[in-house]
Amino acid sequence: MRLITLLTLSSLLGFTQPKAQSSDSLQYAAEKHFKNVRQLTFGGDNAEAYWSYDGKYIIFQRTNPKEGLNCDQIFIGKVPQSPDEPFTYRLVSTGKGRTTCAYFLPDGKHIIYASTHEGSNDCPPVPDRNKYGNRYIWPLYNTYDIYMADTSGKIVKKLTTAKGYDAEATLSPDGKKMIYCSDKDGDLELYVMDLKTGKEKRITTALGYDGGAWFSPDSKKIVWRASRPKTPEAIKEYQDLLKDGMVAPTNMEVWVANADGSNAKQITELGQANWAPNFTPDSKRIIFCSNHEYKRGFPFNMYMVDLEGKGMVKISRDKGFDAFPMFSPDGKKIIFASNRNNGGTRDTNLFIADWVE
Q1: How does pLDDT run across 217-242, given as a tens digit for each residue?
Q2: d(CA 156, CA 80)
Q3: How far apart are CA 307 and CA 109, in angstroms?
Q4: Which of 63, 105, 215, 313 is the most buried (most CB within 10 A)?
Q5: What is the per-residue DSSP string for 207-274?
Q6: Would you call 272 exposed, middle or buried from its count of C-beta atoms within 10 A (0-12, 13-18, 19+)?
Q7: For residues 162-183, b (16+ Cβ closer than 10 Å) or e, as one string?
Q8: % of the chain beyond a pLDDT of 90
Q9: Cβ atoms of 5 and 323 closer than 8 Å
Q10: DSSP label at 351?
Q11: Residue 193 confidence (pLDDT)
Q12: Residue 152 DSSP symbol
């Protein structure tokens, strides 16, 4: 009850983060593609921040127990237009259950996101990793469905209804098609739905996790993260976890295909976890997150490759975590989540920077 009360209050009043001048202290010397880095959030876990089509707002997920926010909820924030303008944001999800993966529609008046609130008002249970050899695993809550809401938070349509995990949705550049991940057919596959008619098509078939997909700005391609267990032992492990509603995202590579799923090809072969891919504004390169340089599986940094997986460039340099990059619609800025400047805590915050080509 305290959670809902606090969140309802915050949605009415909004949050305002401290003013923060752009600072070289937020940027590593080797990060040549960044300029005027600014920290937007301060404290908690803030991630998956994605631009509105007009570039004026971002939508993101946030959790912070210190605020009574015990599992992720969705917020909309106005992008500051000057160094002196504070970053303000407000709750737009229900404040119930857990949410993830939000995205604006082109009209700027509606959003989509995944939520477990119909399953329970409470946060769903966190998996006991000891049961799985203390490995890093992601829960696939079967109460996740994808909803459309207006920017006041009112849900106007439930987009998925199948029992199981439905989440990780993004939209085509024209806003007419939604690509998302679901286990409705017994594996974690990608589906493309026509938002107007609700008709959809499954576009992946290989065994393994297919998720986190994006359309290219020119609408011709998609990019996503995928696991492809090959050995009998790896296949059994993947399927056993899936039966328990879990997935181990520790061995994934980046794939691209035509927008209809045809001509799919793997473009990284780096080992470990390569994920959170997205296109550059020219649709010719992929920016993604990876831990492949570090045998211990950490840190995560951002890298860039072309559509053949060649010409890799290291983009970010934090010693903890840099991920979820997205370029602004005009290509002039980039937003991402990072552990940088968190005072030695585990906080993940949002950062925005001018992009230097």
Answers
A1: 999 999 999 999 999 999 999 999 99
A2: 29
A3: 33
A4: 215
A5: SS-EEEEEE-TTSSEEEEEE----SHHHHHHHHHHHHTTEE-TTSBEEEEEETTS-S-EE-----SBE
A6: middle
A7: eebbbbbbbbbeebebbbbbbb
A8: 88
A9: no
A10: E
A11: 98
A12: T
How far apart (Å, rounded) are the C-alpha atoms in residues 334 and 348?
Answer: 16
User: How far is the C-alpha of 165 from the C-alpha of 114, rounded, in Å?
Assistant: 9
Establish how many alpha carbons lie within 13 A of residue 215's alpha carbon, considering only the half-sphere containing its beta carbon: 22
Q: Note the pLDDT tens digit of each residue in 95-129.
A: 999 999 999 999 999 999 999 999 999 999 998 88
Q: Give the integer Cα–Cα distance in Å for 107 and 122.
A: 32
How far apart (Å, rounded) are the C-alpha atoms in residues 126 and 275? 22
- Per DSSP, the residues of 153-196 read S-EEEE---SSS-EEEEEE-TTS-EEEEEE-TTSS-EEEEEETT
Residue ranges of domains in the chain: 2-355
Which CATH number is 2-355 given?
Answer: 2.120.10.30
Specify the amino acid at residue 33.
H
Q: What is the mean pLDDT of residues 308-336?
A: 97
d(CA 277, CA 253): 10
Confidence (pLDDT) at 296? 86
CA 210/CA 356 separation, integer angstroms:
31
Instruction: Judge whether 95 and 12 are in contact, CB under 8 Å.
Output: no
Cis bond upstream, residue 299 (ω within 30): yes
Which pTM was predicted?
Answer: 0.93
Report the half-sphere exposure of 296 (CA within 13 A, side-chain side): 4
The pLDDT value given to residue 15 = 61
In whole angstroms, give the CA distance from residue 270 to residue 252.
Answer: 9
DSSP H/E element including 130: none
The amino acid occupying position 221 is K
